[in-house]
Specification:
The protein is α/β, with parallel strands linked by helices and about 325 residues long. It is about 45% helix and about 15% strand. It has a single domain, classed as NAD(P)-binding Rossmann-like Domain (Rossmann fold), CATH 3.40.50.720. The relative contact order is 0.12.
């Protein structure tokens, strides 16, 4: 099976690419910058230059392709808006895949997207789900709600470096999942006929609140966190201000997502049916405890090694010094 992966340089997309290659798929990646995606080529993927927002680049990318896994989404630093990438770009891709006769289409949405119509990214994801379902393609929609990888920069590193950890309002508990596990479901969806034409949550075994994650990081690192609460009103004010300026629209749309995180409602779902349909054992899913334990274990070991090397360097420097002062002549 020949596979086109879109968004392959992202946090999730690179794990999907790695998994598909490991399972023996012929993998082609749609990339805007082959130079930045060189690591994918080193892994064994074929790179094709293209852009979701330029429909003319898609037919060539889809030539000879059997299946598509779409893991692309707007990044906060992108100059393009959520509407341009996550709606117009996805419509382009779905139409091109249909015209190319693609047999399977795997799309990543967000859990509970339909519950937040006033949040641009959630509403766009919901509309894309509906458009894909009506396209006639043989599709599967996967709905994660948070990546464990994102917690390293949000909690672990600030705690290790004694920096402030920002917590927004009544932070919603979220069932984070390791992107490697999400990638496993995405690639497995290509093989499971029972997943066709359906949507599935792909979430971790437990929803974690911000303060639970902070306590876990404190215990594993042996350090106390400097927690700073950010009132939701401040983010709302920044969002409203950003909408006054064209350059701030993408930022404002991203800030609107804070409504989801600060709602206090858990982002979680039962995975029983997902595990059963995909034939994956629940015990294989990484827990947040084990993920963080592995991360802090590596970091603390590295810190000890660096401290040991510094002490050795100091000791060598002391031994090189002569214990005698040169006599004056």
């Amino acid at each position: 099976m020949s596979l086109l992966i879109v968004g392959a340089t992202g946090t999730l997309g690179r794990q999907v690419t790695r998994r598909a290659l490991d399972e023996g798929y012929q993998v082609r990646c749609l990339v805007r910058s082959p130079r930045k995606a060189a690591f994918l080529k080193e892994w064994g993927a074929e790179l094709v230059r293209g852009d979701l927002c330029n429909a003319d680049t898609l037919p060539e990318a889809l030539e000879g392709i059997t299946a598509v896994i779409d893991a692309a989404t707007t990044r906060p630093t992108d100059s393009l808006s959520i509407k341009q990438v996550d709606w117009e770009g996805k419509v382009n891709l779905i139409q091109a895949a249909k015209a190319a006769g693609v047999e399977r289409f795997i799309f990543f949405s967000i859990l509970d997207a339909e519950k937040f119509p006033n949040v641009p990214l959630m509403e766009v994801k919901r509309c894309t789900e509906l458009y894909l379902a009506e396209s006639g393609l043989n599709y599967t929609i996967l709905k994660p709600c948070g990546f464990m990888q994102g917690l390293i920069g949000q909690y672990a590193i600030p705690i290790l470096e004694n920096q402030a950890v920002w917590v927004m309002g009544e932070s919603s508990p979220i069932a984070y999942m390791d992107t490697q596990d999400i990638a496993k479901f995405a690639v497995q969806a290509l093989k499971v006929s029972a997943a066709s034409g359906r949507s599935f949550p792909v979430v971790g075994p437990k929803a974690w609140g911000a303060y639970e994650i902070i306590k876990l990081c404190e215990r594993l690192s042996g350090k106390d966190a400097r927690v700073t609460r950010m009132p939701g009103g401040i983010l709302k004010a920044v969002e409203r201000t950003a909408r006054f300026f064209q350059w701030g629209w993408n930022l404002a749309d991203r800030l609107a997502f804070s409504e989801v995180v600060a709602s206090g409602k858990p982002l979680a779902a039962s995975m029983d049916e997902t595990y059963a349909v995909f034939g994956i054992a629940a015990e294989e899913t990484t827990t947040l405890e084990s993920y963080m334990q592995e991360y802090f274990g590596r970091i603390m070991k590295k810190l000890k090694e660096l401290e040991y090397e510094r002490e050795r360097a100091k000791e060598k420097a002391r031994k090189k010094r002569s214990p005698f002062k040169s006599s004056a002549k």
